[in-house]
Write a structure and sequence with these properties.
It is a single chain. By secondary structure, this protein is of the alpha+beta class. It has 4 helices and 6 strands, in the order H-H-E-E-E-E-E-E-H-H. Strands 1, 2, 3, 4, 5 and 6 form a 6-stranded antiparallel beta sheet that branches. A hairpin with a 2-residue loop joins strand 4 and strand 5.
Amino acid sequence: MRKIVGTSLSVAVAIAMAVDGYIVFFKGNQQTAADNTVKTKSTSVKKKSTSTTTKKTSDGQYKDGTYTGEATSTQWGDVQVQIKVSNGKLATINVLQSPDSENKSVQINEQALPTYKSEAITAQSSKIQQISGATETYKGFTGSLQNALDQAQA
C-alpha cells in the first residue's frame, strides 16, 4: 500500500512540474492587461526644464541642442534626464537624477537605465519596452524623456 501511495504521489508531482514548466516557458510570454496592472503611486512632474538650441535641421525630427526634461517624481524618488540632439536625431541621454535612497533602487537603476537609454536612442522616442521590476524607473525615465523630446520638436 505504501508503494502505491508513494508512486502515485511521485507521478502527481511530476505531472504538476511538467504543467508548471509549460505554463512558465510557453504561456508566460503572453501577458494580459490584468498582468500588467501595477498598483503604485502616480507619477508627477515637478522641477523646471531647460533647453539650449543651436540650430534647426531638416534631417531629423528634432532641433539640435541640449534639452533637460522636467524631473518626474516616482514612488522611490525623482528621475530627470538631459538629452543631446545632433543632426536632428536623439544622440545621447544623460540621467541627471534617479532614485538612490535605497540599495535596491540603486541596483535596479544600474541595470535598467542603460537599457532604457539605448532603447530610447534606437527608437528615437520615449516609447520603449518596460523592464520587469523597474516600473517606477520606467515611469520617471519616460516622463522626463518625453518632456525633453517635446522641447526639441522641430
